[in-house]
Amino acid sequence: MMSKPKIAIIIGSTRETRFADKPAAWLLENAQKRDDLEFELVDLRDYDLPLFNEVASNLWVPSQDPRVVKWQQKLAEFDGYMFVTAEYNHSVSGSLKNALDQAYKEWNHKPMAAMGYGGVGAARAIEHLRGIAVELQMVPIRNAVHLGGGEFMKVSPLGQNGDMSEVDAVLQPSLQATLDELAWWTNATKAAREKTA
């Protein structure tokens, strides 16, 4: 029996006061209701990544820093990725960009999706993330989950700091569309990688 494809839900912020944990927990809980994919939460805080300082991308030269190698080994376990991202100055956080830069081969030919949060649901950050993903030879999918505007203020400490259940009904349609598309591309790219391995 074939194993289920594995998806990493990557928390893309390392700030002490980050909001990411609340939507990431909601995302994991809902994603785990599916029976066609396996999900694991991956927190950038657990990897203590230095700023990129290798001779070159690991596409060309094996990375030397053991912290970077540990990160690459973790990424290699997955068949696809879903990023939980804030929006910093119309883009992703520096910690997420650095984490993306610290690997190359591990991202290749795998799909990526995103859940963004903030005033506009991190729409501009997710657009930047998709562009980065293309350069890393990933497959960025069309759908995304955007927690923004009034819904964001309902659950954020900047607003009412309510439970994610208060915005669940609004987010479910985009979540299901995103996970359905992610599953399709994960299966397609996994089959193609196995055929050429």
Describe the protein in words:
This protein is of the alpha/beta class and 197 residues long. The protein is 40% helix and 15% strand. It contains six helices and six strands; from the N terminus they run E-H-E-H-E-H-E-H-E-E-H-H. Strands 1, 2, 3, 4, 5 and 6 form a six-stranded parallel sheet that branches. The longest helix has 29 residues, at 168-196. It is globular, with a radius of gyration of 16 Å.
Strand content: 15-25%
Instruction: Give the integer mean of the pLDDT values.
Output: 97
Output the structural class: alpha/beta
* Distance, first to last CA: 19 Å
Put simply, the count of helices is 6
Count the beta strands.
6
Low-confidence stretches: none
The protein's oligomeric status is single chain
**Helix fraction bin:** 25-40%
Major sheet: size, sense and barrel closure? 6 strands, parallel
* Rg (C-alpha, Å): 16 Å
Order of helices and strands: EHEHEHEHEEHH
Shape: globular
